[in-house]
Amino acid sequence: GRSFRPEGTKITFPNGVVVGGENVTIMAGPCSVESKEQILLSAQQVAKAGAQFLRGGAFKPRSSPYSFQGMGLEGLKLLRDVSNETGLLVITEVMEISQIELMLPYIDCFQVGARNMQNFNLLRELGYVRKPVLLKRGIAATIEEVLLSAEYILSGGNYDLMLCERGIRTFETYTRNTMDISAIPVLKKLTHLPVFGDPSHGVGKRDLVPPMALASIAAGADGLLMEMHPNPDKAMSDGAQSLFPEQLEKLMEQMRMLAPVV
Ligand code: PEP
Ligand code: MN
Q1: Which residues does the UniProt record annotate as the domain DAHP synthetase I/KDSA (predicted)?
Q2: The CATH homologous superfamily of the domain defined by 26-59+69-166+177-256
Q3: Which residues line ligand 1 (CB under 6 A)?
Q4: Tens digit of each residue's pLDDT (9 = 90 or more) over 161-174
Q5: Which of 25, 58, 203, 259 sits 20 to 30 Å CA-CA off 65?
Q6: Cα of 228 to ligand 2 centre, how many Å?
């Protein structure tokens, strides 16, 4: 609850970036790591736009087993290499307990995806790790369920936790999900944890990402997780919701008018 830390949790990363402080933190990059060239170019574009974290999945939770499943360990190594070159931090998704040890040397933050928000064994294990975790809201999870999942990680002793609204499934089909902007101020009120918005998965269409990113910041988000691809039309996953690099740059300027973005 908020009363545990009325001033809110602040998470300091190795390069001095603080999440949950005065500044809004931007995590951007492709849905998946696809190749050395693709992730290096992505990192350069993300750094140029002024974001702090490079995102990119090496282990991908795909709806179909026949879709691209990610580059695995090779993808983790590429993420670390290009982030060191560009001065970015790395956030990437962990899908199962056996991946935790493997990932630790290569990453700065674990991402728990919507599909694993109630993978309680994974959450419990992440409570014992001393590395920050960003926990996404499940596809049909209530706020109460998000909070109880967060409690699995916190109760293990890992307080470096961020929550993320990424859209929920409703009767509406025009957008991929329904981005519940109200979850942002609700979670800010109920917890001391930094709260992020993921407008990319929230709406699923790139032209709707900038307005929902700005809305998330106006609603009090501590940061945003967004998909950007050097060539979205060729992306191996989530191309339709990935921003073009120029769009990310323009959006960063607009966000700076609303809040300090590091
Ligand atoms: C992702 O960030 O690429 C992802 C799979 O997100 P989610 O878990 O929110 O669907
Ligand atoms: Mn994605």
Answers
A1: 10-256
A2: Aldolase class I (3.20.20.70)
A3: 31, 57, 61, 113-115, 136, 166, 201
A4: 999 999 999 999 99
A5: 203
A6: 10
**In the chain, what are the domain boundaries?**
26-59+69-166+177-256
Please tell me the residue having the least CA distance from ligand 1 atom 8.
Answer: 113
pTM above 0.90, yes or no: yes
The amino acid sitting at 227 is E
**What's the rounded Cα separation, in Å, for the pair 138 and 145?**
9
ipTM: 0.99
Strand residues in 97-219 grouped as ranges (E): 109-112, 133-136, 161-165, 195-197
Percent of the chain as helix, strand, coil, to the nearest 5: 40, 15, 45
Distance 227 CA to ligand 2 centre (A): 7
What span, in angstroms and rounded, lies between the C-alpha atoms of 129 and 83?
22
